[in-house]
Design goal:
By secondary structure, the chain is an alpha/beta fold. Helix content is about 30%, strand content about 20%. The protein is globular.
Length: about 375
């Protein structure tokens, strides 16, 4: 292969056009935007000098691209992704990689060739604070984790946002709400940092503050294999919102909030101190540490650059698509727990959730009063810490 990746974008709505803009601006080395595809002819108009397609199958088989970036509504991530992989293309898929676990498994199963690069757009894995936290946890700086709490309620969305597409916030078009659209990033980071929980009890509010039919408010209780617990809170109907990640372990507590990364470190591990202290009300002495984390660069171009480098240089992927099943499974478990009104064990029974989702689609009577396309840049929607 030449030292250049010809990339086609399938779906050039809000997110796809954002990717196209930074590619055309030369923000990703050794990568050229070679073709675009969308079922809406108006979305193709900004690309008069590129091959344009209305059918993803034609672009995939055109011979004009080495790889595709899939930025369509969620259900099509699976079908288009499988087609592209089976045709031998490298694939970068937007989050979530699929709507539900069973479709994730079908998509991942289509990736059979080691040399074929299959990545996910989990751009928040490039945020400096989370990269630093991951390295600290992997090195055992916090010791065994006992508790994780994440309040991430700064994903506020207006009625205009939900009215911007007929597919948005519907069971048949999007497959979910905040868990499937905004929070795949946070759920991915949670599992990347702390591993998968073994049991989930979710409390999802459907259409709490918006004219939609899916979840826009979620609180979930998590249990992990080592006995650690967690609470995850998110919504699109709270302003001002909060983004506070707190992890407590043997050696102290880490908090990331408001662009600050603090580590209250126990001089003596907590359990050791408890067993050896003479007084009943003593606490371990601590160090109060502010962890410097360098400013993060552009997140999405960084993932796309890593994808290109993996194709050309065989570098490790920051976000392998196969890992994308974890955030989907966790989101599915939270919703299934709500629907069945009980805790859900993980691994999740994929067929059970798929069946419940099909019931929601079949029984839906929701209709949007008006759909109005918005011509807004996507930059304001991106969150760091």
């Amino acid at each position: 292969m030449a030292n250049q990746v010809r990339l086609g974008i399938i779906g050039v709505g809000g997110m796809g056009s954002y990717h196209a803009n930074y590619l055309q601006a030369g923000k990703v080395a050794r990568c050229s935007l070679a073709a675009v595809c969308d079922i809406d002819p108006k979305r193709l108009e900004p690309f008069p000098d590129l091959p344009r397609f209305s059918d993803s199958r034609e672009l995939i088989r055109s011979g004009k691209v080495d790889a595709v970036l899939i930025a369509t509504p969620h259900y099509f991530h699976t079908t288009i992704g499988i087609d592209a992989l089976e045709q031998g293309l490298h694939v970068l898929v937007e989050k979530p990689i699929s709507v539900h676990k069973a479709d994730c498994e079908r998509l991942i199963a289509a990736h059979r060739k080691r040399k074929q690069i299959f990545a996910a757009m989990f751009n928040q894995r490039t945020v400096a604070a989370y990269v630093k936290l991951k390295s600290m946890l992997d090195a055992g700086e916090l010791g065994e984790i006992f508790r994780v709490n994440w309040i991430v309620t700064d994903w506020f969305r207006t009625e205009a946002y939900y009215a911007s597409g007929g597919w948005r916030a519907t069971w048949s078009g999007e497959g979910g709400g905040v868990l499937l659209n905004q929070c795949p990033h946070n759920l991915d980071l949670l599992t990347w940092l702390c591993g998968m929980p073994t049991r989930v009890h979710g409390f999802c509010g459907l259409a709490v503050r918006h004219s939609i039919e899916v979840e826009d408010r979620v609180t979930a209780y998590l249990e992990f294999r080592n006995g650690a617990t967690g609470v995850f809170v998110t919504t699109t109907c709270e302003a001002p919102g909060t983004n506070r990640l707190e992890i407590a372990g043997e050696r102290g507590r880490i908090v990331i909030e408001n662009n600050r990364f603090s580590f209250v470190r126990n001089e003596i591990p907590m359990t050791e101190f408890s067993r050896t202290a003479k007084g009943g009300f003593e606490c371990p002495p601590v160090w109060n540490i502010e962890i410097p984390a360098p400013c993060s660069g552009p997140q999405h171009p960084a993932i796309t650059q890593n994808f290109v480098d993996a194709i050309l240089d065989d570098v490790p992927l920051i976000a392998p698509a196969a890992e994308g099943i974890r955030s989907v499974e966790l989101a599915n478990a939270m919703l299934l727990s709500t629907l069945l009104n009980r805790a859900i064990d993980i691994p999740l029974d994929a067929a059970v959730f798929e069946g419940e989702l099909k019931k929601l689609i079949a029984n839906s009577k929701f209709r949007k009063d008006a759909v109005k396309e918005r011509n807004e840049g996507m930059g304001a929607s991106f969150k760091n810490v």
